[in-house]
Amino acid sequence: xxxxxxxxxxASFTPHVLLSETGADYELVLVDRNVDAHKSAEYLELNPSGxxxxxxxxxxxxxxxxxxxxxxxxxxxxxxxxPVVGTTExxxxxxxxxxxxxxxxxxxxxxxxxxxxxVTEDGTAAVKAAAEVRLGDMMAIMDKAVAxxxxxxxxxxxxxxxxxxxxxxxxxxxxxxxxxxxxxxxYLERLSKRSSIANTFAIEGIEAPYV
Length: 211
Description:
By secondary structure, the chain is of the alpha+beta class. The protein folds into two domains: 2-79, Glutaredoxin (3-Layer(aba) Sandwich), CATH 3.40.30.10; 88-194, Glutathione S-transferase Yfyf (Class Pi), Chain A, domain 2 (Up-down Bundle), CATH 1.20.1050. It is 50% helix and 9% strand. The protein is built from eight helices and four strands. It has helices at residues 13-22, 41-46, 65-75, 88-112, 121-145, 160-170, 184-192, 195-203, and strands at residues 2-6, 26-30, 54-57, 60-63. A four-stranded mixed β-sheet has the order 2-1-3-4, with helices on one face. α1 runs parallel beside α3 (65-75), α4 runs antiparallel to α5 (121-145) and α4 packs parallel to α6 (160-170). The radius of gyration is 17 Å and the shape is globular. The chain starts with a strand and ends in an 8-residue tail after the last helix.
């Protein structure tokens, strides 16, 4: 049985959705950020960065959301959460996964944790404001990418879709939230109704509005 170390609404959300999607046998282990459990010695043994999530699968211990998502998708190929390795579709899939994991997601972290990159309150505010502007540009890219729909890769639902929903959810309080974009808005509404995603919202105690 796999163990997913999670906290509601954190970067563990997408792996949680995928485990639900596959029907895998898994256990959720709460890492309570409210008491800094993610900085405990026990958790740091699993994820030395002190970030959530972590996944245990037998003797394998993984951290980093994208790596965990790929592991789940490849472990359950019948769920078709990622295109077949070696195809052009897989390369396209990798393009968007790495864009979200290495460009979009770090910018969200800049927005929420600007104090880690500035030494004054004014500096923190400037970092946050600049991140929101850059994220607006990134959301415009994603809005264009989902225009054909119904999913990011067209007709095929993949792990990219709950990943993008998670990132968009974190930007829901922006002056221009992702739901305000012509294509992203309907796309996110459709995804929010998918059973694996709706069930994850319910299990994690996340209440509407979801995005």
